[in-house]
């Protein structure tokens, strides 16, 4: 018989698992890992004629994507164009970034799997006589290690030609040059920290769903059990 068990700790762990998976996925897909040095508008002369004043823009560069602005001189306006600069894996700008993409992708796949499974932990608390919370916590710990490896390798690729074109000639491994870090990099770091928090908190979720109070509710024949 399926017993739906909902506790504050198990629900919090489930929500955190989903948030972490989405945060890492969005960061990985974003082009806002590096914010390039400011570049003057190519329509500066037109702006001067019409008396306009346009701020220089800062292009952004991700692991496999980029965002830049294209000036339309005849309309004196600029549009932002975002998309992958690499058509396939081998065209990613640096071997270090290729390794980063692999490790991050593996970690994110694990996190997305755990996030999907966590939704069903209200009904299924064990699999093959093992706590599903402990199994998921272990997987989250492994995913966190993959994410750490990816984040450590990522700055080693700042010396590639693609990064230098965005960050200037002084950019090199672990040196940003004229660039600054974008929100995607910080989101990836925050998601990695939360991943390990989820891995630790999964043990609390397991304790909450297997407590004596839960067992008493089951013995009383209740199918829906909600506890604080």
From TrEMBL:
Pfam families given in the database record: L_HMGIC_fpl
GO aspect biological process, one term: single fertilization
GO cellular component, one term: membrane
Entry's localization field: Membrane
Stored InterPro entries: LHFPL (IPR019372)
Mode of membrane association: Multi-pass membrane protein
Keywords for the protein's UniProt record, in alphabetical order: Fertilization, Membrane, Transmembrane, Transmembrane helix
Transmembrane feature ranges: 12-35, 96-120, 132-154, 183-203
Protein family according to the UniProt entry: Belongs to the LHFP family.
Name this polypeptide is given: LHPL2 protein
């Amino acid at each position: 018989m399926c017993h739906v068990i909902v506790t504050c700790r198990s629900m919090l762990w489930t929500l955190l698992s989903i948030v972490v998976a989405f945060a890492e996925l969005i960061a990985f897909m974003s082009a806002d890992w590096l914010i390039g040095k400011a570049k003057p508008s190519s329509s500066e002369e037109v702006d001067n004629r019409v008396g306009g004043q346009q701020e220089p823009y800062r292009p952004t560069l991700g692991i496999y994507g980029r965002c830049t602005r294209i000036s339309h001189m005849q309309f004196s306006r600029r549009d932002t164009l975002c998309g992958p600069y690499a058509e396939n894996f081998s065209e990613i700008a640096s071997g270090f970034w290729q390794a980063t993409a692999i490790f991050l992708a593996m970690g994110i796949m694990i996190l997305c799997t755990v996030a999907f499974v966590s939704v069903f932990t209200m009904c299924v608390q064990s699999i093959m006589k093992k706590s599903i919370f402990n199994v998921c916590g272990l997987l989250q710990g492994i995913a966190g290690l993959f994410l750490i490896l990816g984040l450590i390798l990522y700055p080693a690729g700042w010396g590639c030609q693609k990064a230098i074109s965005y960050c200037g000639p002084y950019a090199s491994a672990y040196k940003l040059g004229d660039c600054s870090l974008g929100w995607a990099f910080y989101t990836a770091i925050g998601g990695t920290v939360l991943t390990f928090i989820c891995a630790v908190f999964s043990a609390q979720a397991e304790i909450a769903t297997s407590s004596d109070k839960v067992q008493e509710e089951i013995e009383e024949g209740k199918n829906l059990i909600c506890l604080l």
